[in-house]
């Protein structure tokens, strides 16, 4: 019994590629832009406050008229967190 050309083409053209490992990635903390214990930049601080204020407003259902209250509460929360952090000792 002979094999048809179609059946040999289906299996003969396949090649198995060797398994490869993804490249190892290593990041040193000394290579980062800001050390872990560094204070946030002014822009990072503003973003942290804005995000916290957003979540305070969301918790209240975005009721109008409390924007300044939310901002000040977020600032105070950030200040409290930085004072109580162990790096500040």
What does this structure look like?
This protein has 89 residues and is an all-alpha fold. It has a domain at 38-81. It contains 3 helices and no strands. The chain has helices at residues 5-12, 42-59, 67-84. Helix 2 crosses helix 3. The chain is elongated. The N and C termini lie far apart (86 Å). The mean pLDDT is 75.
What is the average per-residue confidence, as pLDDT, rounded to a whole number?
75
Radius of gyration, in Å, reads 29 Å
The total count of helices amounts to: 3
> Count of DSSP E strands?
0
Strand content: under 5%
Secondary-structure element pattern, one letter each: HHH
How does the SSE layout of this entry go?
Elements: H1 5-12, H2 42-59, H3 67-84
Helix pairs in contact: 2-3
Offer a few descriptive terms:
mainly alpha; 49% helix; 89 residues; 0% strand
Summarize the structure.
The chain is mainly alpha-helical and 89 residues long.
């Amino acid at each position: 019994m002979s094999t048809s050309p179609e059946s040999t083409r289906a299996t003969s053209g396949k090649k198995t590629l060797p398994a490869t490992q993804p490249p190892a990635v290593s990041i040193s903390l000394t290579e980062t832009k800001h050390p872990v214990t560094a204070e946030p930049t002014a822009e990072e601080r503003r973003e942290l406050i804005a995000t916290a204020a957003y979540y305070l407003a969301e918790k209240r259902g975005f009721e109008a008229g409390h924007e300044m209250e939310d901002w000040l509460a977020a600032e105070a929360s950030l200040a409290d967190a930085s004072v109580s952090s162990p790096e500040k000792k």
